[in-house]
Every structure is written in C-alpha cells, then in structure tokens.
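Deliverable D2.4 — example input (structure tokens):
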C-alpha cells in the first residue's frame, strides 16, 4: 500500500473524529437548596421570644442543616477554543502533510503551532483565536489526523503523524472569507516550518486556482448570510 493511500485513509478517519468533536459540548449542573427553621408561636398564635435553650438548640440545628447542604459544584473551566454554539452549516478543511517517506514530529509541531499563532486548548487540539476576544471561540482549529485526533502533551516527544487537519466551521466568529484568509496562510506557514505540503479537502496539492475558488465560495457565503440593512424587509 502506497504512502499516499495510507495518508488518505488516515485523513478519512480523522474527519469522522473532527465532526464528533465539533458537536461536543458540556452539561451544566444545578446547586441544591437549603432549609428554613420555623419560629415558635404561643397558644394565641402570637410569636413568642425563644428562651436561651431554644436559641442554642435552633442555632445548633441550623449548623447541622448547613453542614448537610450539598456543596455547589465549582464553576466549569472553559478551555480556549470551545465553540460558543454547536450549530454549524459548513466545514472548510486543509491538511498539512509530511512529504513521502517522512512524518511530522511532535516537538516540531509545538514550535510551528506557536509561531503560527495557535493556542493549545479545548479538546486537546490547537486553535486560532480572535485577538483580544478568546471567548468568541476559534476562527479555525488544528487536529491530528491519527485517531482520536488530539495531542497528548505528556507524550509529545514521541508523537509522529503523517498529517495535520486544519478546519474552520461556519458560521465562525469572523466573516467566512476572513476566517479563510487567516487559516490558509497559517497552514502555509506551518507547512514551511515542518517541511511539509498543504493539501486541499480532496487531498490534492493546494494551488492558486483552488484558493481562488474557495475565496469566491466564501465571499458568496458571507453575502448570503449577511444581516439585512436596518429598515429593509427580507420578504420578496
């Protein structure tokens, strides 16, 4: 089996992993409620001032009740790169692949990712975040094509992979064309640093004609999904 066939198989497996990762999201939990202690009343229904013993017993009872309350869960820590919404309608993909007979090594990937402006975070993969607004989610993400698609930093020195998958999901936190203009140069930059090649979603070498075609498609996507001007009806 040729190196290119193995690469195509690996990329196909990775895409199924990426789709599952994109729709993954956490669940929130609710904190428990406390209990109230009733006040003493007399025969006539009027409230009576409790004696010292009653106060001591009530105070002790409240302390026990407070001790029995379920502890509120700590706030969920949101790692950088988590999407604000799991809803998307399109994925644009690129690959940075090793040249024939070679692999991409973990330590080199870490260095290249940092130089390309990527942040390690959610799902244990790399993300390109919006400058100054990380809470908006990733512009695009970078995963390992080897299942499960993540990077184990504790084993990064021994990691070798045939390729990396770059993917952006639309809608993104920036216009689609801007997201592409951020991802494509980053992929080229990492390919240069790793002595690899950039492939399109069909695993063919990414050329100028293909780049222009993708730009035109994403420009049309932005026009189609742009908000209508204020005061203008969306009806025909």
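Example output (designed residues):
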């Amino acid at each position: 089996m040729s190196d290119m066939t193995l690469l195509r198989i690996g990329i196909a497996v990775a895409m199924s992993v990426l789709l599952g990762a994109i729709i993954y999201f956490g669940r929130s939990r609710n904190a428990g409620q406390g209990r109230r202690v009733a006040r003493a009343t007399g025969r006539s229904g009027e409230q009576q001032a409790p004696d010292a013993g009653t106060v001591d017993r009530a105070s002790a009872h409240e302390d026990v009740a407070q001790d029995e309350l379920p502890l509120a869960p700590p706030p969920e820590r949101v790692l950088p790169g988590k999407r604000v919404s799991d809803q998307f309608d399109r994925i644009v993909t690129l690959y940075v692949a090793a040249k024939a007979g070679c692999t991409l090594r973990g330590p080199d990937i870490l260095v290249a990712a940092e130089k390309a402006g990527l942040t390690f975070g959610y799902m244990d993969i790399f993300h390109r975040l919006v400058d100054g607004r990380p809470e908006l989610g990733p512009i695009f993400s970078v995963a390992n094509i080897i299942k499960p698609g993540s990077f184990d930093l504790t084993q990064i020195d021994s990691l070798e992979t045939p390729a990396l998958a770059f993917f952006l999901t639309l809608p993104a936190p920036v216009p689609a064309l801007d997201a592409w203009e951020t991802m494509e140069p980053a992929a080229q930059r990492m390919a240069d640093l790793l002595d690899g090649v950039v492939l399109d979603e069909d695993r063919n070498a990414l050329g100028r004609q293909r780049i222009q075609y993708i730009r035109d498609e994403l420009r049309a996507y932005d026009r189609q999904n742009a908000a209508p001007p204020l005061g203008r009806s969306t009806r025909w």
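The CA atoms of residues 6 and 134 lie 36 Å apart.
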